[in-house]
Design goal:
The protein has two domains: about 90 residues, no CATH class; about 140 residues, no CATH class. The protein is of the alpha+beta class. Helix 1 runs antiparallel to helix 3. It contains eight helices and ten strands. The strands form two sheets. It has a seven-stranded mixed β-sheet with strand order 2-3-5-4-6-10-7. Keywords: Membrane, Transmembrane, Transmembrane helix. This is Alpha/beta hydrolase fold-5 domain-containing protein. InterPro entries: AB_hydrolase_5, AB_hydrolase_fold. One of its GO terms (molecular function) is hydrolase activity.
Length: about 240
């Protein structure tokens, strides 16, 4: 049965969007690299789901037989909304590609006789091997930054005897990790007091923990974190809101 022009246009639109989804998902996975394993698993799951769905939809668009009747107005509206939502999701996937940590920070992720470094799907922990201070450090990364990128600047605190926890945020967005500090406090009971800090959006998210209007200490710290984003460079100084809680 011969398809109508509108159905042909719809199917080719679906095919193009599906191909775009496959390309963007695969490209984002390649650009993210090892952080797919070392970061929060949410982005990996999203990329895998987008890839599988795009392949499935693309294949089905070629195999489905021609419709016996033209689509109704309501069905066309739904189809248009689905295509629009798919394009938006593909754009979000591309935007979420994170900045990956480079050699100086990655070198700080190695355990030695002074600091033990452990990581899981939700956090990086730098634990001093010697006497441990009752004051720990909790840090929220900036948006779409590799949590490992902060290990170099925070490791000296661990070497000085402080437990350091760097959270891994879902999709690299601190607003999706607002409960991370409570989880860290519950997990690391030997620590009785905490210093909290963050970079960029991460600093904004930890601000309510110390009080927006009355932070006990407001410091400007240099941030020599080397990341990969159109080449190697050093981030400019960033404002940190730090407080003992």
């Amino acid at each position: 049965m011969q398809m109508t022009k509108s159905e042909i246009g719809y199917r080719w639109t679906v095919r193009i969007v599906a191909i775009l989804g496959v390309i963007v998902a695969a490209g984002a996975a390649f650009a993210t690299g090892p952080m797919l394993i070392h970061g929060h698993p949410a982005y990996l799951i999203l990329l895998a789901a987008a890839f599988v769905i795009s392949v499935t939809v693309g294949v089905r668009s070629w195999r489905l037989p021609a419709s016996r009747k033209s689509a109704s107005w309501g069905r066309r509206v739904v189809q248009g909304m689905l295509i629009g939502a798919s394009v938006l999701m593909i754009a979000v996937i591309a935007w979420l590609v994170p900045s990956t940590a480079e050699a100086p920070a990655l070198a700080a992720m190695t355990s030695d006789r002074t600091v033990t470094v452990t990581e899981n799907s939700t956090e990086i922990v730098l634990k001093p091997t010697g006497p441990e201070s009752p004051v720990g450090v909790f840090f929220q990364p900036g948006a779409r930054f590799d949590a490992r990128a902060y290990s170099a600047i925070l490791r000296p605190l661990a070497e000085a005897g402080h437990l350091v926890v760097i959270t891994k945020q879902p999709f690299g967005i601190a607003f999706l990790s607002t409960g991370a500090f409570a989880a860290a406090r519950a997990e690391h009971h030997p620590v009785t007091r905490w210093v909290v800090g963050g970079h960029s959006l991460g600093g904004l998210v930890v601000t309510p923990l110390v009080g927006w209007w009355r932070p006990r200490t407001l410091k400007r710290m240099p941030c020599p974190i080397v990341i990969q984003s159109s080449g190697c460079y050093f981030l400019p100084p960033i404002q940190q809101r730090i407080s003992v809680t």
